[in-house]
Prior knowledge:
Number of helices: 13
Number of strands: 13
Low-confidence stretches: 197-206
CATH architecture of the largest domain: 3-Layer(aba) Sandwich
Shape: globular
Distance between the termini: 10 Å
CATH topology of the largest domain: Rossmann fold
Strand order of the largest sheet: 3-2-1-4-5-6-7
Amino acid sequence: MRIAFVYDRVNKFGGAERVLLALHEIWPEAPLYTAVYNPKSAGWARKFKVIPSFLNKFPFAKGRHEAYPYLMPLAFESFSFNGYDVIVSITSEAAKGIITKPKALHLCYCLTPTRYLWSGYEDYFSSSVFRFFSSPLVAYLRRWDKIAAQRPDLYLATCENVKKRIKKYYGRDSKVIYPPVDIKKFKRKHLRGEAKPIQKRTPRRWSEDDYFLVVSRLVGYKKVDLAIEAFNQLGLPLKIIGSGRQMGRLRRMAKDNIEFLGELTGKRLLGYYQRCQAVIFPQEEDFGLVPLEAQACGKPVIAYRKGGALETVIEGKTGLFFSPQTAEALARLVKKFNLAQFDPLVCRRNANRFSKERFAREIKKFIEETWTKKK
Length: 375
């Protein structure tokens, strides 16, 4: 079985990229096709044979791909997949629009239907002026997206939340296979080293283990500003791991009790997970790996009551939910939070349901059985 992977763009690292690395472990010879490839910001992709489209030669495309949305359809339609039996598109945008031969199996692992065209349209086009001038482009991309969505033979969804969106926006059925979490990498700290519940303290007496944690790209829909507003009110320590275009604006918002740590990986990231009181997850995410990484480390999650977190966090046992999506609602919940009510072992066991090994077994079996039936 000759297999190839297709992904929207290879220029960052996040949850989708972890899926690709897990797939690479199963099929290490499979090449990776993509619209744009930036090796400087996507070092993880050096394991792959990466094949970018013609768009990669355009000015600034490697880092500013959003400047060329009208060319994304053509970029993926330009690829030839002659010689491959199975093509797996991993996508939240245009990669599903590849054109394959009738004998080949095109399986789409859908992260979400294109967010800025459908479920996230109001967030991306909040300005009425911008919405007016962009409406012809959006109309074109929506038409193409609907057509492209019919090209895969089968769909896999990352969660029940995304499965419903695929049906709503594309009219397609799908099977859920949850993304992988590297449980071996994200692990609990020895009980003696775990954080104690926060007591009433003055700021000068805070210890390094009294902080709450956000792990996120610093972009609009992640709602990191909401967490900052809440902790500005509370005065409690908040540490933020991640980078993005909103870094400057968010820094200006934050008071002295909030610390920005930038991009962290490996042992440093693990250490912050292990020592925190809880992870704050203020956004509506399609699925979201951060809550599971936190639980794998034995830590609870304080999440907005919507989206993928409803499938990965058990209320009262591995975390708490706030609603509505406001700083005030989050602040009220954090005030009530007590780490002592959460059992690290329960958090860990819940995360185990989403292990990388489970993902590998399920997707390998599904793809191989589906290909055998199609032959």
